[in-house]
């Protein structure tokens, strides 16, 4: 290594050290001097007060997780369009890349029985956590998207460990994933339109209505025995988890198939 390269490496090391010290100092000073607001904004206060408020039945969603209440109740239409955007993106990638066809040139070999057995245990634990995150998304931190990413991680782990050939041998095809993804979106829209369909002949209701309103008595189940169910929020979280998992898993298989062409 000549002297010029040594000076270059030294300059990079010193620059990184200065950057780290600067950022650390800024965070430290900010932590000391920055004082958070005593009160939250008026809109946030309304949401926090009513996300779970059995005493105000016309505004509550019976969701202990205020984030889930916002995403799937107070601003639910935005979330449905965001879900549709993900589907359109996956569909667009499929069209642009030609859909892909697995040729069998790559991904035919797994990583052996020991790694396979260990992976099965990890997959089982991940599945339990993912579905728990989706089912309890209205009660605890988490929700449909987070659970969907966890489920997609199962696919990301299983593909290299067990091989694409082994996964296809089990009957799991990427086309089935894509069509199932469409089905999840249709079911989400169906839940959104359910209030209108139920009250089509009599009564008033709104798109994505969850609980009773001043001008509508329609309500989805708010409780499951003695546990808050949060009505539509529960179903949206579960369907969103499956939709995200299917979309991301499909994208992974599509990229692998495209790679096998080369």
Description of the molecule:
It is a single chain. This protein has one domain (63-260). Helix content is 66%, strand content 2%. It has 9 helices and 2 strands; from the N terminus they run H-H-H-H-H-H-H-H-E-E-H. The protein has a two-stranded antiparallel ribbon.
Question: Helix and strand layout, with pairings?
Answer:
Layout: H1 3-33, H2 42-50, H3 66-74, H4 76-97, H5 113-135, H6 144-162, H7 164-169, H8 174-198, E1 223-224, E2 227-228, H9 232-260
Antiparallel strand pairs: 1-2
Helix pairs in contact: 3-4, 3-9, 4-8, 4-9, 5-6, 5-9, 6-9, 8-9
Kindly summarize this structure in a few lines.
A two-stranded antiparallel ribbon has the order 1-2. With 262 residues, it is mostly helical. The radius of gyration is 24 Å and the shape is globular.
């Amino acid at each position: 290594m000549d002297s010029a390269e040594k000076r270059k490496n030294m300059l990079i090391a010193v620059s990184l050290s200065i950057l780290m010290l600067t950022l650390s100092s800024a965070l430290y000073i900010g932590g000391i001097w920055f004082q958070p607001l005593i009160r939250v904004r008026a809109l946030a206060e309304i949401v926090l007060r009513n996300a779970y408020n059995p005493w105000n039945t016309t505004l509550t969603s019976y969701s202990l997780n205020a984030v889930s209440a916002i995403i799937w109740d107070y601003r639910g239409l935005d979330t449905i369009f965001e879900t549709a955007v993900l589907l359109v993106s996956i569909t667009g990638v499929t069209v642009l890349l030609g859909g892909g066809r697995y040729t069998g040139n790559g991904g035919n070999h797994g990583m052996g029985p020991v790694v396979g057995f260990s992976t099965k245990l990890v997959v089982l634990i991940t599945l339990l956590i993912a579905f728990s995150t989706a089912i309890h998304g209205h009660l605890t931190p988490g929700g449909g998207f987070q659970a969907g990413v966890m489920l997609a991680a199962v696919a990301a782990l299983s593909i290299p460990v067990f091989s694409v050939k082994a996964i296809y041998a089990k009957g799991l095809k990427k086309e089935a994933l894509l069509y199932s993804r469409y089905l999840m979106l249709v079911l989400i829209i169906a839940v959104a339109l359910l209030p209108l369909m139920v009250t089509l002949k009599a009564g008033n209701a709104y798109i994505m209505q969850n609980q009773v309103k001043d001008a509508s008595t329609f309500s989805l189940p708010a409780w499951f025995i003695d546990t808050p169910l949060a009505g539509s929020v529960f179903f949206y979280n579960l369907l969103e988890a499956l939709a995200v998992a299917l979309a991301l898993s499909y994208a992974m298989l599509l990229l692998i198939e495209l790679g096998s062409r080369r």
